[in-house]
From TrEMBL:
It comes from Lapidilactobacillus dextrinicus DSM 20335. Residues 205-214 have a biased composition (Polar residues). Gene3D superfamilies: Beta Polymerase, domain 2, Nucleotidyltransferase. Belongs to the RelA/SpoT family. Homotetramer. This is GTP pyrophosphokinase.
Length: 238
């Protein structure tokens, strides 16, 4: 009988939605306390059916073992500013009582041969269904903005080349992975400076919000600039 994918994936959708909400709430809590949030923004997805089928064939996973043997049907990605934040987020996840860590893969210290870097955590997450609880596996990928930039570009090139990159592209990707690694290292070196600047910026925003609306033209245009910056920033919701 043909598999009912939408029924099978329904709990995974619920798990991804709940996890995104919870990690975005963590960021909000740090912001409310006026502290640096190790979480910059959060995305998530349920693996598309064609990717599930492709991975089942590639990894010889039987349909009846999908729930236990394919760990990334529910996927959540947490982007952070600094490499140290990755380990802080991993700690946060280990301490949570609403999920259980099953496995951790550190591709930050041990990058993949492709140059890929990220910290992967597989968790068991219980969701509440109408009449029972169901435990869902979810893969949480934690990475810096720089690692995410590299992985996103490499992933899209994969669609074109199906992993068989021409030699020059492969060499370039390796070099960009190294450049991305160096960028993360440099940023970690000036972390204090960057955070101080971010604190000043955040404080100036609070100050601007407290100003009355009817002040001079110059001030209004300054507020306008702040507003457009506000409108453009990710604010943890993507
Ligand atoms: P592609 O081509 O696969 O990149 P919302 O929560 O409603 O604000 P929404 O629409 O649910 O937003 O999307 P969200 O949460 O911003 O993220 C969806 C995109 O994030 C997907 O892109 C995925 O690429 C990517 N993504 C997020 N987390 C993961 C993960 O853990 N694993 C993988 N493989 N991808 C992830 P698209 O749109 O599917 O396009
Ligand atoms: P997608 O499109 O991201 O959903 P396997 O999938 O067999 O290679 P495994 O053991 O299941 O690997 O898990 P692993 O290696 O911890 O994580 C696999 C996921 O990590 C991939 O999902 C990617 O999201 C990401 N990833 C791993 N290696 C690379 C890489 O070299 N480049 C990029 N851009 N991403 C990578 P999928 O299944 O490929 O699918």
């Amino acid at each position: 009988m043909e598999k009912n994918w939408s029924e099978f994936l329904m709990p995974y959708n619920q798990a991804v939605d709940e996890l995104k909400l919870k990690f975005r709430a963590v960021r909000k809590q740090y912001q409310t306390m006026g502290e640096h949030s190790p979480i910059e923004f959060v995305t998530g997805r349920v693996k598309p059916v064609n990717s599930i089928i492709e991975k089942m064939q590639r990894r010889y996973i039987r349909e009846e073992l999908l729930e236990t043997d394919m760990q990334d049907i529910a996927g959540v990605r947490i982007m952070v500013q600094f490499v140290d934040d990755i380990y802080e987020v991993a700690n946060l996840i280990r301490q949570r009582e609403d999920m259980r860590v099953l496995e951790e893969r550190d591709y930050v210290s041990n990058s993949k041969p492709s140059g890929y870097r990220s910290y992967h955590i597989v968790v068991e997450y219980p969701i509440q269904l109408l009449d029972h609880e169901k435990k869902i596996l979810a893969e949480i990928q934690v990475r810096t903005l720089s690692m995410n930039f590299w992985a996103t570009i490499e992933h899209s090139l994969n669609y074109k080349y199906q992993g068989e990159f021409p030699e020059d592209i492969s060499a370039r990707l390796k070099r960009t992975a190294e450049a991305s690694f160096m960028l993360d290292q440099e940023m970690s070196e000036i972390r204090e400076e960057v955070q101080e600047a971010q604190r000043i910026y955040a404080a100036s925003q609070v100050e601007n919000k407290q100003l009355p609306n009817d002040h001079s033209t110059k001030e209004s245009s300054e507020n306008q600039t702040t507003k457009s910056l506000d409108d453009n920033k990710t604010d943890g919701d993507k």
